[in-house]
Amino acid sequence: MKARWLIPLGVAAAPIAQVAFAAQYMTIEQAQRAAFPTADTFVATTAATDAVVGAPPGWSPKIWRASAGAQNLGWLLVDQVVGKSELITYSLALDQRGAVLAVEVLDYRESHGGEIRLAGWRKQFVGKTVADPVELNSDIKNISGATLSSRHVTEGVRRLLQMYNAALRGAGS
Amino acid sequence: MTGALFRRARPWLGTLVEIQLDGCAPDRAASVCEKAFAEIAAIHRLMSFHEAGSDLGRLHRAGARTTLRVDRRTRDVLGWALRIAAASDGCFDPTIAAQQVAWGLLPRPAGSASPDPNANWRDIELVGCAGVRLARPLWLDLGGIAKGYAVDRAMDILGDTGASQILINAGGDLRVRGASARVNVRTHAGLESSPRLELANAALATSAPSGNTGHKRESRFSAHVHGRTRRPLALRRSVSVVAERCVVADALTKVVMAASDRVALRVLRQFRAQAGVCRGNGSWTLLGAAA
Question: How is residue B161 annotated by DSSP?
């Protein structure tokens, strides 16, 4: 076990920058391939969303039907949810009977992570043993203490399943 | 072929669980990640407070003086919880769920008798190698510690992939193996006054009173409960703990939050851990770490 703490020394008055945490995990294509490795086509389709309770106005998740030859394998749905300060794109893979195969986060973005007075924040690392310079945004890769809630994704999955039941079940099988 | 950075994230344990593998062939990374996420999902289902079919749901319904067979992982987590409760003289106590239900932070477990207000961790008995018996009716919350345990189990699965660096982060409960990783700690005081850690083969957990930055006066108290006094812990204090195992790191954040520095230091040493404490004014103190 090895741990080195770099503690802020104090904060100087300096310009303020917005720092946000962002991560891309998978592309839509990777999510398609991961959920349906044997599929040879993914056909984009649409579904009526008016039967879904609690759907945000203008809500229109992306939908693909996965198939191998004439056989329907299931569906990949891609949707976005917005939290207090975050935007999450995620995918839901369903088999041909509508059972959940996987939920994957594709993309996570915070609209704001916090304000940082640049000079003060940078200074705490200067002259320490961290070799590479502190790059805002790209450098904030791992955060401890950011309680990223999965509540919005869970609610989103529920909405997608409602949409599936109302509009996709039985189609293309 | 060795691959680039492989990152996946899925919603489990009430948070987003992220797995990063560096320097591992993509096919190998994908298949081993799948196994790790399956283990995390299993732990979620076993130790969820909300799901009636979880081991916790079954224990709550079974009530007092019934020996129930639980999964060995539930039993493992209870074992850790009791060790840390004993070491901290109850500053950490997994039976605080009654307070959290009373405050509306957790739903009342269905079909379960009301807990005994005097029940505490001493009323949990581990029987044989798979049994659990409650001496008094009580409600258990394993939320944080189970998250840490899930990270440890996932690391055991990912450990032999040959990746140059493995990082698992379950909403701030994280663990690193292989090459060292830089981690930013986020506290109530914001990133600006937060430390950064370089971690190698270590686990880190942070308990910050409010989930996001800056909103210092949102409310007076945090959702954290003092294990012994059952009072809410003061809001403006964040604690990060580094330990070998994530299950220990998570539980010790609660000990450091609740206990005096003297007691906290004793417990940290016992578990070979160290803590960084951020006070209300944004200043940091290290406990148990080499200067």
Answer: S
CB contact under 8 A, B9 and A7: no
Contact between B192 and A114 using a beta-carbon 8 Å cutoff = yes
Q: Is residue A11 part of a domain?
A: no
In a domain, A6, yes or no: no
Instruction: Report how far Cα A2 is from the mean position of its chain's Cα atoms.
Output: 31
Distance CA A51, CA A160 (A): 11
What is the count of residue pairs from A and B with beta carbons less than 8 Å apart?
167
Q: Per-residue pLDDT for A12 more than 60? A: no
Inspect the interface and report whether the beta carbons of A147 and B15 lie closer than 8 Å.
Answer: yes
Mean per-residue pLDDT, B3-7? 85
**Structure-token pair, residue B156:** 């055991």
Encode pLDDT of B176-208 as tens digits.
999 999 898 887 666 666 778 899 999 999 987
Whose structure tokens read 């039941």? A165
Domains of chain B and CATH, by start: 55-141 (1.10.3980.10), 180-285 (no CATH)
Phi, psi of B200 (to 5 degrees): -135, 130
- What ipTM goes with this model? 0.84
Residue B222 carries which DSSP code? E
Around B28, how many Cα atoms within 13 Å sit in the side-chain half-sphere?
17
**What's the number of domains chain A is made of?**
1
**Counting every residue, how long is chain A?**
173
Residue A50's domain comprises: 16-168
Q: Which residues of A touch B276 (CB under 8 A)?
A: 5, 7
Tell me the average pLDDT across A27-31.
97
How is residue A168 annotated by DSSP? I
Contacts A27 to B, Cβ<8 Å: none
Residue B24 to residue A112: CA distance in whole angstroms: 32
The pTM score is 0.89
d(CA B205, CA B133): 29
- The closest of A139, A122, A23, A109 to B192, measured between CA atoms, is A122
pLDDT of B226 over the 80 cut: yes
CB within 8 Å: B191 and A116: yes
Q: Can you give the pLDDT at residue A117? A: 52
